[in-house]
Amino acid sequence: MKKIAVFTSGGDSPGMNACLRAVVRTAIFRELEVYGVYRGYEGMIDGDIKRMYTHSVSNIVQRGGTILKSARSKEFMTPAGRKKAYENLAKHGIEGIVAIGGDGTFTGAKIFFEEYGIPTVGCPGTIDNDIYGTDYTIGFDTAVNTALAAIDKIRDTAASHDRIFFIEVMGRDAGFIGVECGIGGGAEFVMVPETKTDLDSVVKDLKNLRKTKTSSVIVVAEGDDAGSADVIMEKVKTKLNDNTKEFKVTTLGHIQRGGNPTARDRVLASRCGMAAVDGLLAGKQNCMAGVTNQEVVYTPFQDCIGKEKPIIPDHLELIKVLSI
Ligand SMILES: Nc1ncnc2c1ncn2[C@@H]1O[C@H](COP(=O)(O)OP(=O)(O)O)[C@@H](O)[C@H]1O
Ligand SMILES: O=P(O)(O)OC[C@H]1O[C@](O)(COP(=O)(O)O)[C@@H](O)[C@@H]1O
């Protein structure tokens, strides 16, 4: 193998740049030519592909976002789009691919590999942590810490004004951010997509808590089955029927996706990036390089996207016990 390509795709996540740096530098160290594909699968289809050098990734290890940019590509979901992508890669003589992204990116990579056979290894780049085959995904730790910093600030107002705050964190289909923010932020309740939210029982517990507490923080993952934080707040307010209480909603949104990656995310990103290139050289394909129990492991894309990664049940119990 002499030439490989790398791209970032799906939602950006803090640490993608550190991962990209590791891919480029490892490839050059191993005497490969490395090409960057801009805007994920969109750039692959448009032929937006440029050679990368050591200096191309200078001074990015600490930066959020992705210098290669990212996109969600509808065209890549069509056979015609993927054919164009293949032709552009073939033009550059690309023999291996590193795909940095989430489960959607790996779904696309798996289909592309099955159609065109270019060996591909993924790196788990998403704040949601919803990928089987790695304990954590690149960006998760930063997102949680960013959300926690915001929750800490909101707590000041919640406590000073005796308010009940509903704080919405990211996680379209996954509650990992919600759960870790709930534990770290001392939330009274956490609502996540993985578990059925029973608002009657929340209201009952909230009434009991009112005997000992004057304010509350409730963390809602955006994909919760009971609705958005706004919707849940209105329902709880009506059910609780306590005019002495003020209810507020804060949606943290994209601040969770930006910013300088934490040390944990930089190290994870660097390890996965190097492992992806070394994996390609060792003949790995159609799989992701992740870190489980401190070790680099390669997991077939099929399992990364197909197998469930459950939230740790102890964590939910922890929130319940510590909220009294
Ligand atoms: N079933 C699919 N077939 C082909 N490409 C796909 C498929 N699912 C996702 N992709 C590609 O992967 C991109 C990134 O996926 P997305 O779900 O948006 O983000 P993430 O990788 O962060 O989960 C999509 O925009 C699309 O181009
Ligand atoms: O920025 P967008 O495109 O609105 O996407 C928002 C989604 O992206 C995420 O931040 C990350 O999801 P992906 O990694 O699957 O892209 C979700 O938590 C959130 O729902």
Automatic annotation (TrEMBL):
Molecular function GO terms recorded: 6-phosphofructokinase activity
Binding positions (substrate): T126, I127, D128, R163, M170, G171, R172, E222, K248, H254, I255, Q256, R257
Known partners and oligomeric status: Homotetramer.
Active site: D128
Entry keywords, A to Z: Allosteric enzyme, ATP-binding, Cytoplasm, Glycolysis, Kinase, Magnesium, Metal-binding, Nucleotide-binding, Transferase
Subcellular location: Cytoplasm
PROSITE patterns tied to this protein: PHOSPHOFRUCTOKINASE
Binding site for ATP: G11, R72, S73, G102, D103, G104, T105
Record's protein name: ATP-dependent 6-phosphofructokinase
Designated gene of the protein: pfkA
Catalytic activity: beta-D-fructose 6-phosphate + ATP = beta-D-fructose 1,6-bisphosphate + ADP + H(+)
EC number, UniProt record: 2.7.1.11
Gene3D superfamilies: 3.40.50.450, Phosphofructokinase domain
Family: Belongs to the phosphofructokinase type A (PFKA) family. ATP-dependent PFK group I subfamily. Prokaryotic clade 'B1' sub-subfamily.
Top EC group: transferase
Sequence ranges assigned to domain Phosphofructokinase in this UniProt record: 3-279
Binding site for ADP: R21, A22, V23, V24, R25, R155, G186, A187, E188, K211, K213, T214, S215
Task of the protein: Catalyzes the phosphorylation of D-fructose 6-phosphate to fructose 1,6-bisphosphate by ATP, the first committing step of glycolysis.
Cofactors demanded by this protein: Mg(2+)
Entry-linked Pfam families: PFK
Binding-site positions, Mg(2+): D103
Species per Swiss-Prot/TrEMBL record: Algoriphagus sediminis
Pathway in which this enzyme or protein is active: Carbohydrate degradation; glycolysis; D-glyceraldehyde 3-phosphate and glycerone phosphate from D-glucose: step 3/4
Entry-linked InterPro entries: ATP_PFK (IPR022953), ATP_PFK_prok-type (IPR012003), PFKA_ATP_prok (IPR012828), Phosphofructokinase_CS (IPR015912), Phosphofructokinase_dom (IPR000023), PKF_sf (IPR035966)
Regulation of its function: Allosterically activated by ADP and other diphosphonucleosides, and allosterically inhibited by phosphoenolpyruvate.
